[in-house]
Specification:
The protein is mainly beta and 244 residues long. 7% of the residues lie in helices and 36% in strands.
Length: 244
């Protein structure tokens, strides 16, 4: 899986007014080719190399439902974290008027600023497994049987207006696939070959773009008000995680 959040555009923050964020903020993705990611396989997964497929054979052993709580932030293999070494945003001001031609003046607006691009995670909606007690590998098949929904959110209570503000910031600067709300699909399959005397586990869920940063106000004198720091996430894709 290619991580889209490792590239940020420019060293200055982007001014985003909640009233000007386009209609994507309230929409779920609909394109079937972009909703489901290829299966993500952990390095320790007990599967035969190169055997993972999205079209398992009819004779494959089907997975059994797993018990226990579903993880809200399961790790995604290969995800990394990046500190964003950028100064506070600086927004262009307006020229002074006739009486004060050199006056400093800026548009008054709230903005979001990303300080750190943290590891993406998966909100697990369904868990399954196959146990192989034989002396040889066995074909297995996982099928998503339960669904769930993940929405844009933050580590502190924020208004719907601020959620839209963050969603616009994420979509423009980090990951163009983020969505306000995402509901996972049923019947999505994956499979492969589980090694002898091994148990392979599968989690189906929604991948979340995660960042850390703050929201603040830019005032008419071009000064920045108190910063409200928070962790922020938004769903951007769904798929299988295969692990031991």
């Amino acid at each position: 899986m290619q991580r889209t959040s490792s590239v940020l555009m420019g060293v200055t923050g982007l001014l985003l007014m909640a009233t000007t964020v386009p209609a994507f903020a309230a929409d779920e993705p609909t394109a079937p080719t972009s909703r489901v990611a290829p299966p993500v396989v952990a390095d320790d997964a007990p599967v035969e190399p190169g055997s993972i497929t999205d079209k398992p054979g009819a004779g494959a052993v089907t997975g059994s439902d797993s018990g226990g709580a579903l993880e809200e932030d399961a790790p995604i293999p290969g995800e990394t974290e990046e500190v964003i070494e950028t100064p506070d945003p600086e927004f262009p001001g307006k020229p002074g008027d006739e009486d004060f031609p050199d006056a400093e003046h800026c548009e008054t607006a709230r903005f979001a600023h990303i300080s750190r691009n943290t590891k993406n995670t998966m909100s697990v909606k369904y868990k399954t497994f196959v146990k192989n007690d034989l002396n040889s590998s066995v074909d297995f098949k996982f099928t998503s049987k339960k669904s769930g929904t993940t929405t844009v959110g933050a580590s502190i209570n924020i208004s719907g207006e601020v959620k839209v503000l963050w969603l616009g910031k994420l979509k423009v600067d980090v990951n163009g696939s983020v969505s306000h709300s995402w509901t996972s699909e049923l019947g999505v399959e994956t499979g492969g070959k589980v090694k002898a005397h091994s148990t392979v586990k599968g989690d189906y869920g929604i991948m979340k773009e995660n960042v850390y940063g703050y929201v603040a106000m830019q005032y008419s004198n071009c000064r920045i008000g108190a910063k409200q720091y928070m962790d922020v996430w938004a769903p951007y894709r769904e798929g299988w995680r295969i692990h031991s």
